[in-house]
Amino acid sequence: IKSLDQVDKMRLAGKLASSVLEMIGEHVRTGVTTEKLDQICHDYIVNVQEAIPAPLNYHGFPKSICTSVNQVVCHGIPNDKALKQGDLVNIDITVIKDGYHGDTSRMFAVGNVAPHAERLVTITQECMYKGIALVKPGAHLGDIGHVIQAHAEANHYSIVQEYCGHGIGVGFHEDPQVLHYGKPNTGVELKEGMIFTIEPMLNVGTFKVDIDEEDGWTARTRDRKSSAQFEHSVGVTADGFEIFT
Ligand code: MF3
Ligand code: CO
Ligand code: CO
Q1: pLDDT tens for the 245 residues of the chain, in order
Q2: CA angle (91, 39, 215) in 5-degree steps
Q3: Which ligand lies nearest the alpha carbon of 67?
């Protein structure tokens, strides 16, 4: 449970994280490398925002942002490969400002993408907002997981179970775990002042993922079909929710 003073700091951290996503949009184009996107975001966070890119050196993560392209589910490491027309890329930004974290991600389409790819992105974003809409005191985390899973599966997508949302504040990943599947009326009961992320990952095919054996981070769909993700940092207010990002 965060105090009003802490909520103020989360507001600022959230705003900065979302500003990085707004800033980087115009750079996400055919031919750009994800390493270049990382460098632009890093410089913006450090020099303009005077904030800290939380991923850098987090449990050994080597870059300042995560870039997850096509079949990469999450935790993609920016590299020297150029984006190409038709790619879907998730950019996940976490900044630390005055000791507090803001964590958010969204999908970007590179050039024109296929209608089925657009549809995956749309449904994934809808899942996140359907989850957020249920946030209020007295609701349970299982309500959120359930609505996300139901909307994904109604559209013939699967929900990744290996990764989840999380409490956030002074810590990057705090309790509780926010599962993107589950049953209504189960799990932690929400109380005013809680802050956590909702960040569903939807797959076109199997929900199963593999972690890259060489880098230890990159999570790919086992069948190498596409995956998409959106993330917001959300607080529980007296009668509902506030999106910080
Ligand atoms: N931003 C991710 C999340 O939503 C975590 C990235 S951890 C990293 O929780 F080390 F890969 F950066
Ligand atoms: Co997160
Ligand atoms: Co994130």
Answers
A1: 999 999 999 999 999 999 999 999 999 999 999 999 999 999 999 999 999 999 999 999 999 999 999 999 999 999 999 999 999 999 999 999 999 999 999 999 999 999 999 999 999 999 999 999 999 999 999 999 999 999 999 999 999 999 999 999 999 999 999 999 999 999 999 999 999 999 999 999 999 999 999 999 999 999 999 999 999 999 999 999 999 99
A2: 65
A3: 1
User: Structure tokens of 47?
Assistant: 């020099």
pTM of the model: 0.99
Q: How far apart are the CA of 235 and the centre of ligand 1, in A?
A: 19
CB atoms within 10 A of CB 49: 19
Q: Is 143 in the pocket of ligand 1 (CB under 6 A)?
A: no
CA 240 to chain centre: 21
Using a 6 Å cutoff on CB, does residue 104 contact ligand 1?
no
Going from the Cα of 29 to the center of ligand 2, the distance in angstroms, rounded, reads: 25
Using the mean position of ligand 2's atoms as its centre, give its distance from the Cα of residue 19 in Å: 16
